[in-house]
Amino acid sequence: MDMSVICALGANLSGDQGDPVDTLSAALCELVSKGFSLVSVSRFWRTPAYPAGSGPDYVNACCKLRTSLDPRATLGAFHDIEAHGGRVREARWGARTLDLDLIAYGDAVMPDLQRFAQWRDLPLRQQQSCAPTELILPHPRLQDRAFVLIPLAEIAPLWCHPVSGQTVAQMLAALPEAQKAGIHPV
């Protein structure tokens, strides 16, 4: 059975596939070539690097997909596409040629509600140095990131977070305006 998937895309370095806009476009094509059905894609957005000063501005987007792959295989396919796009995993939250984040897989909460909550509630300092070794769904910091919520609001404003029950529009409205400043369509 096909599942609905939300993917956030980002890039802030040029690579073999060109500049970040070209790289995101190529990644979308590669998702389709790997068997994902592309349901919708947001516009591309220029966003300040996060955290501030960690590199050049990003180009970000979100897409909705359908897949018959399970969550781990979906993430594995995303990692393969990142590698093909020149992604090298060196520094956490560092500059990169391509980043594909599995934001949500249907209404799945993985590995369980307790582990999800631990990662969601992890203090910022620890977030910068710790990465989970297991798949955490939905993305534990989705509600905190304007660079994900702004493009996601274009294609799924009524998507409901399976833990908080908030829609994308509600999560975006709850963010301070300062976090949304500087994010503009490409």
UniProtKB/TrEMBL annotation:
Residues 92-103 form the 7,8-dihydro-6-hydroxymethylpterin-pyrophosphokinase domain. Keywords: ATP-binding, Folate biosynthesis, Kinase, Nucleotide-binding, Transferase. GO terms for molecular function: 2-amino-4-hydroxy-6-hydroxymethyldihydropteridine diphosphokinase activity; ATP binding; kinase activity. It is an enzyme of class 2 (transferase). One of its GO terms (biological process) is tetrahydrofolate biosynthetic process. Pfam families: HPPK. Pathway: Cofactor biosynthesis; tetrahydrofolate biosynthesis; 2-amino-4-hydroxy-6-hydroxymethyl-7,8-dihydropteridine diphosphate from 7,8-dihydroneopterin triphosphate: step 4/4. Its EC number is 2.7.6.3. InterPro entries: Hppk, Hppk_sf. This is 2-amino-4-hydroxy-6-hydroxymethyldihydropteridine pyrophosphokinase. It comes from Thioclava indica.
